[in-house]
Amino acid sequence: MAEFSASVYQNEFLPDGGTDVNAIVTITCQGAGTAGQSGSGGAGEIIIVDTSGSMGPATMAAAKDAAQAALAEIVDGTWFAVIAGADRAMLAYPQVSSGPGMTKMDAQARQDASAAIGRFVGSGGTAISTWLDLAGQLFSSVTEITQRHVLLLTDGENRERPGRLDEAINRATGYYQADCRGAGTDWQVAEIRRIAQALLGTVDIIPSPAEMRAQFQDIMRKAMARGVADASLRVWTPQGAQVLFVRQVSPTVEDLSSRRTPVNPLTGDYPTGAWADESRDYHVAIRVPAKAIGQEQLAARVQLALGADVVTQGLVKATWSNNSELTTRIDQQVAHYTGQAELADAIQEGLAAKAAGDEATATTKLGRAVQLAAETGNDEATSKLRKVVDVDNEKEGTVRLKRTIEKADEMALDTASTKTTRIRKEPS
Amino acid sequence: MTCPSCGSTVPDSARFCESCGAQLGQPAVVPAAAGAPPPADHPLGDAPISAPTRKPVGFLADPPKAAGRRPCGECGGEVGPDLYCLACGTKAPSERDHFEEQPASWVAGVCDKAIGKSRNEDAMALLAGEAPGSRAVLVVLDGVSNSVDSDVASLAGARAAREVLRVPLPAGMGTPESRDAAVRKVFANAVAAANTAIVAVTDPDSPNPASATFSAAVLEGRRISWANIGDSRSYWIPDSGQPLQLSVDDSVAQEQIESGVAREVAETGPQAHAITKWLGRDAEDIVPSVGSREVEASGWLLTCSDGLWNYISAPEAMAAQVRATGTTTPLDLAQALVAFANASGGHDNITAALARVDVSDLGQNDRTPTPGGVPSDG
Ligand SMILES: [Zn+2]
Ligand SMILES: [Zn+2]
Questions:
Q1: Which CATH superfamily is domain B96-366 in?
Q2: For ion ligand 2, residues whose CB falls within 5 Å
Q3: N or C: fewer beta carbons within 10 Å in chain B?
Q4: Single pTM value for the model
């Protein structure tokens, strides 16, 4: 039985008239078990492999091998299917034309699915909306599945009329989760990130075919370790308060503010997807009406809810004080993650400006990113930034864009922009 | 384990309940002095102090525990299990920070942390017979704020004193002098029990041992008896006519007043809050000053801490505040007085304990108990 715990990091002291409360809430899950084994419903896995004509022979061979390796990680008894994606989606396995579009994993099914993957041939275009829609249809063909996860590999830009993909993303949002990978450098980070963010998954670049197998195994292993299906971050705020934002800030930065589902007038749910044994950090910012010096009140109850059950709760407080030593202190967790969120924005905006030919903005933004990465100790961001810019002064954030940049390095910087680092914690 | 006093969950190793301050792990302190005959060599050893071994006539039970959690004081909303309001988020005071007792319809008290304080070191323990005017016990202790665990100590002390005062005061051997001596002895026992309880909950190694004032008033029919150590007070406030401060403070201010300094000057001077007697491990003199009188009119017996009287010290000022509320319901009046003190700044913990005396409730039989006879409890 999974156990959740919550800890809160904040400076609860507000000056006279102060209204804004910031807190980092760490939610930790232990004893999650294995996907689909908790008794609360079955787990479903769908592997989508891009089989468009753009997949070169080496990439295609690596993709087949990686998909077969991923099959080996799917625990027996798990519902699964394999989709071949091109300008339309094909159900490659199980090969059925009616009834349930997924089957339970066992040795025979694994062997047959492997064989089906081995017959993939690249041809045609890329219409990702059809891949997402078919995955949704397959999941819905098996009613006992309550935890749904997709592994999606593409190598190229989506070739559909504008809006089609977004409509498909909307249909899938809240229904299944998807981890997305791009092979090579001919795909659009922003496009695939949109899918992964909406579907509560990760996005990354697989620059060389040799890395594909390990990445697929890793994704599938992590998916199978998520024994807690579909939880929500539930945030209560008092009457008269305003939620400024709710963000996941670790392991990646994801702004959840717009994804609130009201539970009651004071409470809203934000999706978190499934949980493995892991820890995630959330940054909540709440505006409360100011109270008199000495008053203490609750600014938020931050809870993890499994269905209707609240399994853990962290209390975010506000206490008004005229002691400036207390009120001017900035919690180091809040400061750290505020910097990490700004870092993600600076990288993405800098790269977007560079792509649009606005070198001045790109230089400023990426310079700020270099400065923030150093300040917040994000070594991965620092090393990826240094492949895109030459750093004159890290502390000042003065940089020059490199003359020649490997496309893969730029994309790796982009996909890694939302990854955050943690700092050592001392509960407040 | 569960606190036997308030029902809060407490760690097994806890010596005290963090919610209500009750001492844990041993039965409530019932000093031998309450029930057992005094030693034979005592000067009053042969006085006919009732020495019951079973629940005696006039034994008063503890006030009923409040059922459930009080609604939010700010918005009236429900308070959650995390002790914050489910609607407005206001922190509900802990049971120790704000509690009310109403042992009978005519006796009630409120003990409140006050808005200007972070901890409630005042304590209160009340008893009353069901019949109005029968018998009431008001005990108020004010923990000294710079000492460790004063909040735990004061409550332990108040409850220990209440045990001693649970049975009617003795009537002595037939003369007013012997009755006064017997009453004086019971109050001395109550103070000693409070002191023992305070010392018992004080860390023996604490360089700053818990200490507290003591003020108790007992109403039996028309007769009010009181005892005092420090600067918590009892007042008699008739519905009309001259109000009285019954107890005499043990304080620097009181010494100054006695030497001719005006009350307003003495009570606002630099030593205004310095007390000359207190209870606790470092107490030197724990013999209370004691007094009694009979009341002829309807009114209020009030025992309070300085968190209330600071703002309305003179009996006339206290009476004006009491009369202005226009209520004859003791809990309403206690709440109103606490609200008044908070509105005046709430600089110190506030306790107001009240017994309503209505002469129409008092028959001839309730006049002063017959000396030497069984005390009447109405
Ligand atoms: Zn308790
Ligand atoms: Zn409320």
A1: PPM-type phosphatase domain (3.60.40.10)
A2: B 72, 74-75, 77, 85, 87-88, 90
A3: N
A4: 0.72
